[in-house]
Amino acid sequence: MADAASDYRAWIGQRRTHEDVIAPFPPKALIATFDTGDPDPRIGDPLPPVWHWLYFLDTAPWSKLGRDGMPTRGDFLPPIPLPRLMWAGTQFTFHDAPLRIGDQVTREQEVSSIEPKTGSTGQMVFVTQRLRIHGPAGLAITEERSSVFREDAKPGEKQKAPRQAPTDASWSKTIAPDPVLLFRFSALTFNPHRIHYDQPYVTSVEGYPGLLVHGPLMSLLQIELARRSTPGRKVASYSCRALAPVYANAAFSVHARAEADGSVTTWIADPNGGMAQQGKVTFA
């Protein structure tokens, strides 16, 4: 991994820029997917925090997708040979220039760090990207997004049980993640990763016991619970870290706890009460 680390360092600083329009249909479709009953978005309405994930979608052609359905590496990201990809977490700062429906927007994307590591399941490489999103009013969002590339599962490998999640939430919600929910979120984010919809692939090739719930989907559910439980407050920052996978067809729960300093701690508890994700929301 030492030689690989040296090779990967050459990719740090790789940049690209995308433009998009905050069209009303994607948030309308996410409202339907989350079943919140909100009115249809209209031109000029503010875009809720983190809903920019519905834009700047990767449109790699079919011929450039790998075995897992994801774009092959070696263009923007380095050609890391480890086959399994997982979302690891993210951090956001929301600046005083909110995005609105109808805005023309630009995203600057940069590879900011690449860290090879060795864990209990073998070799891993963590890749972090820095993203800056600008709207008509200036810099709107800064994001640090992390992914991890891992070895194939070894025969008989079992997932380590996560630690137990807290039980002192101020607000909670239960989600029943059926394949339809996973399909809708994959479609909305143009996510071709087969671990979310291809049962034979995810069990026989990647070695998981079932379809995985998207990490970003669970992250969105946490900030949605936090902001809807504290109406009238402006989100200043949000961070979220993945700790353990969650699988389709078994209900998990979303939790948020009001803290003395005014922030809100969020987390996802798997069906057995294990901590699957943890996050933090601060307000301006």
What can you tell me about this protein's structure?
This is Acyl-CoA dehydrogenase. It comes from Vineibacter terrae. GO terms for molecular function: (3R)-hydroxyacyl-[acyl-carrier-protein] dehydratase activity. This protein is α+β, with helices and mostly antiparallel strands and 284 residues long. It is 17% helix and 34% strand. It has helices at 2-9, 25-34, 179-188, 199-204, 215-229; strands at residues 15-21, 84-94, 104-119, 122-135, 138-150, 171-175, 235-242, 252-258, 264-269, 275-283. Strands 1-3-4-5-2-7-10-9-8-6 form a 10-stranded antiparallel β-sheet, sandwiched between helices. β3 and β4 form a beta hairpin. The relative contact order is 0.16. The mean pLDDT is 95.
